[in-house]
Amino acid sequence: MGHDAFKNMPKKEKTIPKNRYLENNDDGFNLLAQLISAESDVSAESEEILRDLENMVDKEFLELAMNNDCPRSAKIYSDLQKVYEDLVDVVNFPVLENTFTVAVGGGFSAGKSRFLNALLDEKNLLPTDTSPTTAIPTYILNGEENAVFALNQFQHRTEIDEEALHAISHAFNAAYNVTFSHILKRISVERTSIPYTNITFLDTPGYSKADDVIQRNNNTDEHIAKEHLRTADYLIWLVDIQNGTIPEPDINFILGLDYELEVLVVMNKADKKIESEVKKVVETARKDLKKNGIPTYDVIGFSSSKNIEYSESKTVLRDFLKK
Ligand SMILES: Nc1nc2c(ncn2[C@@H]2O[C@H](COP(=O)(O)OP(=O)(O)OP(=O)(O)O)[C@@H](O)[C@H]2O)c(=O)[nH]1
Ligand SMILES: [Mg+2]
């Protein structure tokens, strides 16, 4: 697509936050171009190991399987491919192997991103909005310097600035009709201020949103959220407390993750209810989770706007992370 073609694309009318990538067509285009064309910054040595492995899986194993009658070769081949993809991940994002991943999942606008901003005490770290916002799974971790990296679908990593982090959201789609989910695999945000050095936090797109541009592909938000949540070590599930309990689609989604550990369920936006109501909703959610056989660490009320936990001990979240 030529530069001019991009320039003339119609802008949908929508109120979006002030951001040069969203407001200035040239900046928006350049960001896209940078993300798509990023060169690999993986060392030559690692590249070679990965190439050898790829060769082993895609050539040597296939030849071996073809020459020997092995009924399970298709299954083994798909397992090997999965291992190869995991190794590519390790090479591109080694820190993920050395830390626990605490993932935040939930329906669209449950407050996942704002919850992480509150938890990590950085008000404007992740973009939040009432319309669908998070488009790309975002990993947040302690780092020696503040930096944001985007990894594209070709496994190439590029450093972007904070403003770009805020532009890479569904707001970009609203402004330009271009969606990032085909282009980017994940974003990682490194922050010196993050006090948990052995945890990588993961913010995911709301699983429950229909975005007709993305829906035609397999890249729905639901699919993306599921793929990333599956790999997490611990799961925090966010629900907008105004639902009155954990909604049935959430329950089905969690069950579909085949997640074996206990989930911490957070009834978010508790500031929108009086305290006795918060207690009632938490109890109802507790019962519904039990009824559906979801192993639950605990259910708490929380306000991400006020950064307050509503529970007996008031330290459930802290204890969960300590664990
Ligand atoms: N009053 C109140 N509003 C909240 C709270 N948490 C989030 N919000 C608001 O709810 C809206 C959605 O919050 P986000 O953090 O963007 O939600 P999300 O789950 O990340 O949404 P997606 O990324 O679109 O799936 C925003 O307008 C937030 O300001 C809360 O605890 N209290
Ligand atoms: Mg979000």
Automatic annotation (TrEMBL):
Keyword Nucleotide-binding attributed: yes
Subcellular location: Membrane
Keywords, comma-separated and alphabetical: GTP-binding, Hydrolase, Membrane, Nucleotide-binding
InterPro entries: Dynamin_N, Mitofusin_fam, P-loop_NTPase
GO-annotated cellular components: membrane
UniProt GO molecular function: GTP binding; GTPase activity
Pfam family, one: Dynamin_N
Organism whose genome encodes this protein: Chitinivibrio alkaliphilus ACht1
Source superkingdom: Bacteria
Name of this chain's protein: Dynamin N-terminal domain-containing protein
Domain Dynamin N-terminal residues, every copy: 102-243
